[in-house]
Amino acid sequence: xxxxxxxxxxxxxxxxxxxxxxxxxxxxxxxxxxxxxxxxxxxxxxxxxxxxxxxxxxxxxxxxxxxxxxxxxxxxxxxxxxxxxxxxxxxxxxxxxxxxxxxxxxxxxxxxxxxxxxxxxxxxxxxxxxxxxxxxxxxxxxxxxxxxxxxxxxxxxxxxxxxxxxxxxxxxxxxxxxxxxxxxxxxxxxxxxxxxxxxxxxxxx
Length: 205
What we know:
alpha+beta, 2 domains, three-stranded antiparallel beta sheet, 8 strands, 32% helix, 19% strand
């Protein structure tokens, strides 16, 4: 898998005819920003298509692991929580926060619910069952119900927004989608280059 910068540079080389010219008018930062937008849109479309087919899932190539995320205590709410290490995509059924587990036990995935559900479940056997750990997101935090007090760190599996991915980090997309995003970038910026533009900042078109 390529990095964000490598995909952007490849798009620029194709647009410029094989190699990057010193006098190029395309800024790689603009290309990477466009790539971010295209990737985020594609994740939403692919996830929505999965849901339409009855599969409430996200392609694993879109996901990012965050390990050893520290658990804190909100004394006012009397709840344990973690602060999200990165912004996640807003996906159908909250799939942007895909999985939360204790360190070293990926099979013990906790139940992710919406913030309002904890109130609806209050007093029910399901919520009070000590083996069921419930998690819900509010803003940049994830709160826990029934978490073992000895747990100090957790592992998060997130579908992060592309802007959170460093330009030198592996860009989380399936290989076939990477090729399609590259093609879309080339098409987008090739069209932009063909549009006449004014080189002189005099207010005249």
